[in-house]
Amino acid sequence: MKRSEKSILWFDEVSKKDVLLVGGKNASLGEMYQNLTKKGIRVPNGFAVTASAYRHFLSFNKIDVDIFRIMKNVNTNNIIELASKAEKVRNMILASKFPPEIREEIIEAYQKLSLEYKTKATDVAVRSSATAEDLPSASFAGQQDTYLNIKGQEILLDAVRRCIASLFTDRAISYRQDWGFSHFDVALSVTVQKMIRSDKASSGVMFTIDTESGFQDAVIINGSWGLGEFIVKGRVNPDEYVYYKKTNTIVSKQIGSKREKLVYSNNPRFPTKNELVAVKQQRSFCLSNKEINNLAEIGIKIEQHYKRPMDIEWAKDGIDGKMYIVQARPETVVAKKEMSEYQEYKLSRVSKIILEGQSIGGKIGSGETQLVRSVKEMSKFKTGNVLVTRMTDPDWEPIMKKASAIVTDSGGRTCHAAIVSRELGIPCVVGTKDSTKILKSKQKVTVSCATGEKGFVYEGILPFKLIKHDLKKIKRPKIKMMLNIGNPENAFAVSRLPNDGVGLAREEFIITNYIKIHPLALIYFDKVKDKKQRKLINELTAGYSNKKTFYVEQLAHGIGRIGAAFFPKDVIVRFSDFKSNEYRNLIGGSWFEPKEDNPMIGFRGACRYYSKEFIQAFKLECKAIKLVREKMGLTNVKVMIPFCRTIDEAKKVIAIMRQEGLVKGQKGLEIYMMVEIPSNVILLEDFAKYFDGFSIGSNDLTQLALGVDRDSALVANVYDERNKAVKNLISKTIKLAKLNHKKVGICGQAPSDFPEFAKFLADEKIDSISVTPDVMIKTMLYLAKKK
């Protein structure tokens, strides 16, 4: 018998060339089983019930002609008609019997698989594998059904039949029609694969490309406790790990809430069940660093084999403790994007923020909200509305494509809502927790995913614009153009802009948004007497061996993500420059911070680092930088000391850094100083003996040169970086730095706000200008014209 006529083909009999025989999923599993198990990648064995068997099943039961008649000219925009026709076809299939020879072959293959795994009736996953699935052009993510923990011959046969029927779910029909696939050319194969006991451990999804930015040097891993369906369906907010390919290190770890998990049940009718996750597990990472590294290395091997970015499902077996790959498909959205075009969506104005969550897609959409709580309500969904729901699953695809934006209570970057919204090009905010409680139907809102990792739901319909930049046509000025970055989540995306590195990476954003706790409250936890604050600190640090490690690792992961995004270009990280009033706002801060009448010129910058009150916290910052440079291998990360008033302060801070293993010149470490106080300019030649370079902070320099409190609205009219006194100080700084053979740049706001100020700096022959990402292109174009 020809292979094309066989009803059963084992994984070791098929490869990626056999999509038409066994569908995309099975073809990929066979490809990996044959080629990658030799390289140490574990792929559970299994077999495919072939497309030939599917066609034989339809003709044997004489339902193929009826299906053709029902499906001809189906209107997928008419939800009621679509649902009615789809249900008719499914019922016909579910009422059909297997041809005796196919039934026999499935049972025989199942017995053979059970024997291989030394059991009478092994547990298997039964998944659909359509012949137009997992293609480089379209993912068909979740369009057909999956059945887990299937045991026994009759239960297996029923699951296979239900898989065949799922080729005609509403969502699958709609998706095929939208992508131009004929319902009659697409056939269904079924995957029968040995299950991995991840219900006793963890599982998840891995992308070998950053799915938001297209940054190709990162592996993004999402993980949660239990079977992987809850991540894919968006039921849980998973952990996220980022691995950087060039230095083979983890550069970011974020803990997810992971409140529930899917596990085995003992009921054959309902073989899986939902369980709440113990609080301690919720607050723990579901993978160790060793496991993250191992998984990422597996992902890279799979990507190298397929020669393209991949979307991979992994599972850790809780019995043998080993890692397995249970699916791999081409990544179909970001990989297709034209990387030479940089698109910016920008709100023209903002309003009250109603909700926030994780942003997907980088776009903006607006309209009236429509809450949809179940599949039964889908027929009422109106085109152009904002879909608000607890979570989506593949059944929702027919209405998702009609939405102007999507907002969900739960889910992470790899959940169903995220994958499909990317593919459809629709902005989506996932993991808001309470969208279905806070938003009511018919509210006018704007959903923005255009400002980085956080997505926002704003009140009202807000105007916005789309700006497209052809990066190939951008003329580069002679001067170095660098970026100011605070949010690590933006780093991969903005690294695509033409740039010469990062002139200012702020620690403050990382501390405020990822750590949230005052460092001294972690070092001297016993001094925090407030019970609510103590409880919150314990919750936030629960996944770490001790509280100081939490601070160091979280800070390092934020810095590391920025360092990786721009490697090997320079990334200049400024040590923390909070004022005492800002530090007080952190959890536990009130127990350690003084009350100052004028914190802007008080206990901030360098004077903190060597003070007996703060020195231990500064040492944690040094440890974080050392971790980034030495363990992560990101030696492009440099450091900068802010608000250094005197030479004596410079000496003291550098001495502490030396004690912590940060030695100027060692392993290429460069130390910069902010020039933001008149004393910095006056004594620049003396400061030059201790630093590799300088970065002008025009905001504070203007404040102190003009004697203006930049936070006071009463004197705001006086505050102007273009004042002659300020420009004279900047001009002198540049000249003195060059005379002393030191690098000099600017990271203050002035060149971002005023293009003519950037021209002044270029005329003064400054080495580099660092601006915010939103004005990088505009500033470059301006300087290129003004040569």
Write a structural description.
The longest helix is centred in the C-terminal third of the chain and has 20 residues, at 547-566. This protein has 4 domains: 3-194, 2-Layer Sandwich (Dna Ligase, domain 1), CATH 3.30.1490; 199-336, ATP-grasp fold, B domain (D-amino Acid Aminotransferase, Chain A, domain 1); 341-469, Glucose Oxidase, domain 1 (3-Layer(bba) Sandwich); 474-785, Alpha-Beta Barrel (TIM Barrel). Strands 23-24-25-26-27-28-29-30 form an 8-stranded parallel β-barrel, surrounded by 6 helices. The protein has a 7-stranded mixed barrel with strand order 15-19-18-17-16-20-21. A hairpin with a 2-residue loop joins strand 10 (260-267) and strand 11 (270-276). The protein is built from 29 helices and 30 strands. By secondary structure, it is of the alpha/beta class. The termini are far apart.
List the helices and strands and how they pair.
Elements: E1 8-10, H1 19-35, E2 46-49, H2 51-60, H3 64-71, H4 79-94, H5 100-116, E3 124-130, E4 146-150, H6 153-165, H7 170-178, E5 188-194, E6 202-207, E7 218-225, H8 229-232, E8 239-244, E9 249-254, E10 260-267, E11 270-276, H9 279-282, H10 289-306, E12 310-316, E13 323-330, E14 341-347, E15 353-360, E16 364-371, E17 386-389, H11 397-400, E18 405-408, H12 416-424, E19 428-430, H13 435-438, E20 444-448, E21 454-459, E22 464-470, E23 480-485, H14 491-494, E24 502-506, H15 507-515, H16 519-523, H17 531-540, H18 547-566, E25 571-574, H19 580-584, H20 606-610, H21 615-631, E26 637-641, H22 647-659, E27 671-675, H23 678-682, H24 684-687, E28 693-696, H25 698-706, H26 724-739, E29 743-746, H27 750-753, H28 755-763, E30 768-771, H29 776-785
Parallel strand pairs: 16-17, 17-18, 18-19, 23-24, 23-30, 24-25, 25-26, 26-27, 27-28, 28-29, 29-30
Antiparallel strand pairs: 1-2, 2-5, 3-4, 3-5, 6-7, 6-12, 7-8, 8-9, 10-11, 12-13, 14-22, 15-19, 15-21, 16-20, 20-21
Helix pairs in contact: 3-4, 4-6, 15-18, 18-21, 25-26, 28-29
